[in-house]
Amino acid sequence: METKFDRRSFLRVTGTALSIGALYSVFPALTKSAGAEGIVRTLAELNGEAPAPFSFMQLSDTHVGFNGPPDPLGTKAFESAVATINRLKNRPELVIVTGDLTHDADSPDEHAKRFKLFKEISGRIGGAQLKVVPGENDAGLDGGDMFREFMGPTHYSFDHRGVHFIALDNVSAGRPEVGAAQIAWMKADLARFPKTAPIIVFTHRPLFDLKPEWDWSTSDGDDVMNALAPYENVTVLYGHIHRENFHQAGTTKMYAARSLIFAFPDPATAPAKKPMPFDKAHPFKDLGIRRVNGDANGNDLRLEEVALATAEFSGTVGMDQMLKHGNNDAKDE
Amino acid sequence: MKTSTINKIVNTILLAGVCEIGLAAVPVMINLTRASDNPKVIEIAAKKFDFTPSEITLKKGEPVILRLTSSDRVHGFMSKPLKFDTDIPVGKTTDVAVTPDTAGDFAVICDHYCGTGHGGMQMKIKVVE
Q: Considering only residues 71 to 100 of chain B, which have any Cβ-Cβ distance to chain A shorter than 8 Å?
């Protein structure tokens, strides 16, 4: 059946739909216009689901199993993040974790325990779908076998409320690369969408040369960006660098998230990639989670950095006890 | 035999000798030229989680071969400004030809994930004028 829809109306919607935020505000106005049903149906067919407002969380670099000087509290920040999400009034529909769920371990048995603990803690998040990609700590040594065993595929795509999400694996080759096969898969996956479709890519490493000498790059990131370039409405969310960062290439916006273990310094000023020292008075300083919302003005995604609650830890006897139970045998990332 | 004739013969012999020497010298000179163009070879050993030596000095514009080996597992060897990025598998040597075009200090990292100390596995290449 031929879909009735006015091309100018479609362009008006998608042309301003620079992100899911645009769908948030523009879409309701469309429902009042003539021929709206056709447009809704067309977008629904193209995106797999009708556009609708929603929010989701990005967590990153939980490094379950790490317990060392930069963060002697181990999983406490991760657990605090889960509690914070569960306290939110408007609950997110998705929770995305952009890699390094676990800290690597010398023995596979120990690494498996860390995956189990990640699943146990993340399983406490109520009412949201968990979507994850691996970091090199999760999948760099075994090609992603253990990650797949515990968490599922290392790359995949799905649609949620009219937005197309792509989970991209740039770690399990061992090298910082996506690989020709996965890029071909991504191109084929995107082929059914118009160039204006809202797309969110989530991955672990930056897809551009943020700081190659700190291992903050993806060797074939340019090939990925070239494949994404025809699409006007792409947002990339990633982790790995344990700090916030924004970078734009063409119309594609790329955001790095803070970690839930320890922060790295500013690469523009720091002489070396050393974790920021632990601050007992502010144990979750520079850590945190991110909430992604539709913007009220319909122009862009709104990224809201959410601080973790520290009152129950900072300066208390409980904090001292936790520190005593920390061990210093883990190494840095 | 006239002296002039003898001189001509001697000159001819000398000329032939010079030519012969000259002809013989050509391949030697080529060999010498090749010898001077043969890049210096520097051996670098990789293992979890360091490179040995941890620092080398190169001269700007002078070609060298970095001969890489690994004794435990595959490692990476990458520097964007020096324009190389390779893996170092176990059991074979991997040669990287480098001619630095800029003076300065350059970090070379292992970019093939190799375990919990991977993040600190790097060396320095110092390039001097």
A: 74, 76, 78-80, 85, 87
